[in-house]
């Protein structure tokens, strides 16, 4: 957050000027949220939690609250860091206050700012309370939802838990830093990222190792923002490293530094230069079904559609991240009751209806997803104007990993219990897949593993959402192997997902998909034929830096051995809009003799006509968007594709 000081100065100056607030720039959430969720919910829509800088602002905002019946609502203000010093989400002191008599009075237990609409007076409140949030918006902005960022810096998470020191090293080895919280907005985004990746406890760059209760970052600089849970820190000399905690809304605690927690890293100074081709976009306003179609079409996009359970999980994950309660999906039976088709009149490949739905008959002909029902669908009247539009680029695929053969060393379990939808996403965000059983041999491996680690009830990847009795995996492929217990499956339309138990010897039951059980994920096997793990980076690096970047993750810069592999990489690079990127090859040692990183001569080359042409000045291989190669200066900057196989921890 190199720009923190500059942003603070700018907003301090602007905060004393007359605000742009009017009722037409305001938006109220449709669900009650915590203060942290309020900040992120507004930010996710290209908005900010409303900031009141004058009595005039306060009158306008409270008038809007009266109009929308928001009895109590959050304002942008907190005194997390210094009791009694009220600042906004970016750390700027509030230029105006309107506290009720005898308020604020909550001390360290009530650190966030709320308003009673009955009189417009302010109060301090516990930050994890749930009330309405009012956001101020720019109607021209869209939320670009595939990136989760801290002020433009991309976040990554480790694949296993580690100590505080190991987490710092993990981030440093990737040219990144352990996540550091500069203000409440950062904290909200990091907490949202933790929610998205189901990361219960995660390290933050904060410690008091040298001087007890003097909290500093890795550079020894005193923290400009603190967000400890009431009563914390209280651990004395035994607990010297800071962490965030998912279930208490991102408030901090401190732990012994040798505890094992998730590492979250960010890259300083990296900005998002444009929308990712896999971006999902949400409308600011609630629309009818036809208005949602037009909204997406006007952006050159299509209404979001789930062709399988994995894609439905991704869409639900997106709605979960930005607190969209109800949203349209591309599906209707307007022409023929019970025949569900997309906007092109093509039959839906996947149907993820909630048990008992669809039930609306001729009056409810359009499909919606519902946040509180784990993303399962309902049918609604198409004229309802109470749902958000979700759009994505035509041709977008939201892939879930293909089948991975596994042994006991390639299995990992979650430490929490999740719905089927959440379990899919939990494994996916860690580069793995929810366990699939395709043979008696893999069933026996899984049964032995779950019995050993005492994972009582756990999910198996399989569902019959679309057609009762036709069981498919998350990618929609029909399951050829099944291992049902006696008298199973027996749940009908109310039980569309599969679980097993460590005492069932691998036998299956059908169960409601919204129940919560352990997730068992498959990662790269430790022996035999290992699955290739690809990593695509848009960060621009020199050739040498690209090689080191890949090596830091236990991977290698991509080595292309034949035309088929070149076509495969080309397809992936195009899908990700990667542009030019480095590949493994150089003639540094001998002009014209192209070798790989191990100095073995290349057996396959795919130079474009007239190349290589650079002489001694251009000695490194670069692939063009066409898939043809050129020689390039090794100190020029390009993206990189890394590949290899990585053995990961056997338990989260």
**What structural class should be given to the helix and strand makeup?**
alpha+beta
Please, what is the average pLDDT? 77
The first-to-last residue Cα distance is 29 Å
Low-pLDDT segments, ≥5 res = 1-19, 138-153, 270-278, 395-403, 524-533, 645-652
- Return the CATH class of the largest domain: Alpha Beta
Total E-strand runs: 32
Number of helices: 11
| Second CATH tier, the architecture of the largest domain | Roll
Helix percent band: 10-25%
CATH superfamily (homologous) name of the largest domain: Mannose-Binding Protein A, subunit A
How many independent structural domains? 5
Radius of gyration from the CA trace? 26 Å
CATH fold assignment of the largest domain: Mannose-Binding Protein A, Chain A
Shape: globular
How would you characterize the largest beta sheet? Answer: 6 strands, mixed
Proportion of strand residues: 15-25%
What does this structure look like?
With 652 residues, this protein is an alpha+beta fold. Helices cover 19% and strands 24% of the residues. It contains eleven helices and 32 strands. Strands 1, 2, 3, 4, 5 and 6 form a six-stranded mixed sheet that branches. Strands 27, 28, 29, 30, 31 and 32 form a six-stranded mixed sheet that branches. Strand 8 (149-150) and strand 9 (153-157) form a beta hairpin. It is globular.
